[in-house]
């Protein structure tokens, strides 16, 4: 495939579709799989028919272990490419429109209990600048349900502490207002006091969270912080920054928050994405019935 078409597709994803940098990379990697298949079989991706795409799907999915979630992601990338070709009049008909997306098993996310959250917080040594920063990070992730990418890109200029909210830029550059909990507000202000003693690199001043060198934090660093705190707190679950986001949503739902409100707070475009947390609550309900209903109690012999 010629490079000018690939550049045009990149621009389409970034500007027309307003996808994040990570999503653009993922879509282009999916297209590379199709291009590699076409090169191997002497085909032109622009001229593929539905039968050719079916053969690609079979070759890619059924001759190697590709799970349903990965299949759906690859097919989404393929659909996107052919919609781009159709939109820009490179083709007259979309050969991918009849490709069926695989059924994805509903995955119930790992959630920390309130007691585990408390243990996580107790494991932080707030006597150091780094510790106070980490305490503020935990409060932001758990107290506001931020994604890790939203946290590391959070700007001080978008935090309106006196008004109790912050402006978050989520997936696809979509913005939303998110409340700041009183504890997150308190811990962030304490981190700001610590930060004043640090040397900040030019151009990094507006980022809310920095490393000890005065640079913006990375996703990997946030994962490392969470992993170390969990180990110190004795938490055996597999925990990531997203686990705190899941815990935020689940605890809100368990305490009576409306699902639509949770959807808005999390920045989910589709309510069905938020509905995963109802499955967690149903599990909790079942556990409660098994534990407390008299019919399920062990009778003395």
What is the fold's blueprint, element by element?
Elements: H1 3-16, H2 21-41, H3 50-62, H4 68-87, H5 114-122, H6 129-144, H7 148-152, E1 159-160, E2 165-169, E3 175-179, H8 182-195, H9 219-233, H10 241-254, H11 259-266, H12 271-274, H13 276-292
Antiparallel strand pairs: 1-2, 2-3
Give a written overview of the molecule.
The protein has 2 domains: 3-87, DNA polymerase, domain 1 (Orthogonal Bundle); 114-289, Intergrase catalytic core (hpI Integrase, Chain A, Orthogonal Bundle), CATH 1.10.443.10. It contains 13 helices and 3 strands; from the N terminus they run H-H-H-H-H-H-H-E-E-E-H-H-H-H-H-H. Helix content is 56%, strand content 4%. Strand 1 (159-160) and strand 2 form a beta hairpin. The mean pLDDT is 85. Helix 6 packs antiparallel against helix 8. It is mostly helical. The protein has helices at residues 3-16, 21-41, 50-62, 68-87, 114-122, 129-144, 148-152, 182-195, 219-233, 241-254, 259-266, 271-274, 276-292; strands spanning 159-160, 165-169, 175-179. The longest helix has 21 residues, at 21-41. The N and C termini lie far apart (76 Å).
Key features of this structure:
301 residues, mainly alpha, DNA polymerase, domain 1, hpI Integrase, Chain A, 2 domains, 56% helix, globular
């Amino acid at each position: 495939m010629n490079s000018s078409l690939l550049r045009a597709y990149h621009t389409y994803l970034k500007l027309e579709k307003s996808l994040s940098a990570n999503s653009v990379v993922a879509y282009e990697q999916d297209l590379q799989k199709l291009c590699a298949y076409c090169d191997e079989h002497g085909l032109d991706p622009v001229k593929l028919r539905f039968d050719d795409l079916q053969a690609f799907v079979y070759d890619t999915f059924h001759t190697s272990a590709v799970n349903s979630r990965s299949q759906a992601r690859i097919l989404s990338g393929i659909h996107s490419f052919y919609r781009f070709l159709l939109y820009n009049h490179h083709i007259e008909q979309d050969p991918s429109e009849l490709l069926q997306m695989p059924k994805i098993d509903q995955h119930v996310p790992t959630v920390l209990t309130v007691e585990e959250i408390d243990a996580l917080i107790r494991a932080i040594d707030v006597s150091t600048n780094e510790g106070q920063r980490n305490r503020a990070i935990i409060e932001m992730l758990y107290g506001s349900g931020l994604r890790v990418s939203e946290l590391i890109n959070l700007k001080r200029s978008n935090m309106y502490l006196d008004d109790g909210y912050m402006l978050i830029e989520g997936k696809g550059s979509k913005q939303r207002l998110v409340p700041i909990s009183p504890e997150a507000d308190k811990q962030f202000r304490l981190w700001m006091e610590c930060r004043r003693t640090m040397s900040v690199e030019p151009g990094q001043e507006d980022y809310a969270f920095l490393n000890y060198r005065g640079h913006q934090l990375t996703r990997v660093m946030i994962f490392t912080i969470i992993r170390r705190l969990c180990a110190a707190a004795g938490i055996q679950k597999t925990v990531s920054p997203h686990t705190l986001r899941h815990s935020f949503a689940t605890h809100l739902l368990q305490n009576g928050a409306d699902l639509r409100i949770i959807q808005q707070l999390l920045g989910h475009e589709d309510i069905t994405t938020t509905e995963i947390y109802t499955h967690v609550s149903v599990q909790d309900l079942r556990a409660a019935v098994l534990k407390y209903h008299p019919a399920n109690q062990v009778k003395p012999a």
